[in-house]
């Protein structure tokens, strides 16, 4: 099986799982794969949106249930946490959708939103809208980038098998060398 058939066969499931936590890189690469014809663009957007939505929903529920205990451990950041929670209460629509686009905020954002006790009936639809917008934007960027890196990927696929053999050969040589060194140390300890 080559890498293209692996992507075509397991790509959508990998996208759902990969986009649950931090998925920008995966989403961009999925856009490239869609450009190359390995995956279908609408299904990529759906898989990435689904994974992102599920991941944020789980984090939100964890924040709702355990948020005060979890956030209590970050005593140094108490002022920032209170400021973020005020923003959530004053501008829930912007914060819930915008959290997905704030670098470094993808994990802590939904936890903060849950801990701020934003009702699920507000969070869920906003989470869905944010996930779809995020998936569409990043997949489109990856799709557009596929035009530029497509030729490079084709040559990479041709040379990938050769590199795997080279890496495997180097690993075997290093393993044998380490084995001899270990054996020699054991002999010296016995003396």
Automatic annotation (TrEMBL):
GO terms for cellular component: plasma membrane. Keywords: Membrane, Transmembrane, Transmembrane helix. The chain crosses the membrane at residues 12-34, 41-62, 93-115, 122-143, 163-182. It comes from the Bacteria. Residues 24-143 form the VTT domain. The keyword Translocase does not apply. This is DedA family protein. It comes from Pseudenterobacter timonensis. The lineage of its organism: Bacteria, Pseudomonadati, Pseudomonadota, Gammaproteobacteria, Enterobacterales.
